[in-house]
Amino acid sequence: HVPVPMRDGVHLSANVFLPSEYARVPTILVRTPYGKGTGLTSNYQAFVDHGYAVMVEDVRGRYESEGSFQPLKQEPADGDDTLNWIARQSWSDGKIGMMGGSYLGIVQWKAALLDNPHLKAIFPVVSGYDDYRDRFYSTGGAMKLGNRLQWMSENLKAPGYQPDFSKFVLHLPLRTADVAATGRPSEMYREAVDHPAFDSFWRTISTKEQIQKVRIPVFSVGGWYDNYAQSDLEAYAALHKTSGLNRILVGPWPHNMSYKFAGVDFGPQASVPMRSLQLEWFDQWLMGKDTPLVSKPPVEIFVMGANRWRAEREWPPEQARARNFYLEGSGRANTLEGDGALSDRPTRHGSQDHYEFDPRDPPPTRGGAVCCNPRVFPWGPMDQRPVERRADVLVYTSRPLKRDVEAIGPVRVVLYISTSAKDTDFTAKLVDVFPDGYARNLTDGILRLRYRNSLERPELAQAGEIYMVRVDAGVTSNVFLKGHRIRVEISSGNFPRFDRNPDTGAAIADETRLIKASQTVYHDRAHPSRVVLMVMPEK
User: Which residues are catalytic?
Assistant: First the structure.
């Protein structure tokens, strides 16, 4: 419980573990909102044994640390002050690395923005790098409701309060859902719902908008079924443009880095020696040792379907090429899968599909890149057929593949749509269909129609007008094996992964009315709705 003074007089509490009382050594810093505990856990013992000091610190306002917990504001300055304090200690040689996952990774990015001379390298895991697009909203402007409220219910709840996930995600208006989830108001949450667009509030605190300020080596780790995978990869790609010192590793993992799911096992190759990689990374940058790590290709990604690793020089892989799969036929029929198809060319004949979206009964989330308690909010690969049976989900499926198709990169869905509403949502999900019909979700996304042109400037829609929209459906790395089929689901909800659009056009945080919307998806030569995959060359 070592007190660490901040610039405003608040003291944060840390545990410090030293390999020797007499030597000056480099330090591994871990900053956490989840409780530093009192002892040296097995997670950190390896670093002390290896000659590092390890410091585990409660962030401001959490557990043993003083102050008020303001996670959107406090971490850059507190991280900077902590780094400077470490460098002044008699046991420190002034070289510091940071590591940890999720929130413990977010604080590393925040500290790295300030270019502190003592911070030499970071190792963020499943953390992302943008508060708006990662922690609260999506790249399409819808709130990541289940993720946010579930995290708050477990970490910010009032003493004695018993939250119910199935109830608080349904709470209206959204502005007071924090009370439903935690039993008390949350300033962090209220600030987020006050700023549903990507405005100056978010831009000021965004690592994404300031990524050029990060000048130290970064080794980031992500998971294809984690909420932050796309952001982790985008951060790597941005840094790679200016520096060759960064690395990224992405496996078939959810937020807790497990590689086994109910009924799905990606095999022993999916397990990696994370502690060894961290030791190598910090040995290179804190101890000045030449390690094999830096001579290897900087991008290592697990290819699902084939269940093997692929090493690349950049993201997306240089040899990947965009391939269009056009929607045709009826995505909704009397059969389970519908008659909707994916083809190499847009259909010549005018074609469109209709469905009614009712926010009182939205299509449910079934697995995917959700967070952060799988017992309450299940994650990962799951059979999507129960969702595909719904009348408000359009399903388009390719013919059985004659050869393997390896898709690695971002997934984009271009739709020509119209709606009866002033504002509504359109969702897309990429699915790998096995020969027996099992439909495994790979990645998904959503577009809030008011943000069709910009996250900064919302624009309501005109009823009946046809719009071309782009749904960012995330990232993946998957081989659709010979005999499998490629599928995309189109709808207007994925709840509670994303909040429900009330379809009224009013401010969503304050809306309590929910109305139905009549949706139309057009797909013909004049309206070439399509899925765009980044596909690797055939071998």
Answer: 102, 226, 255
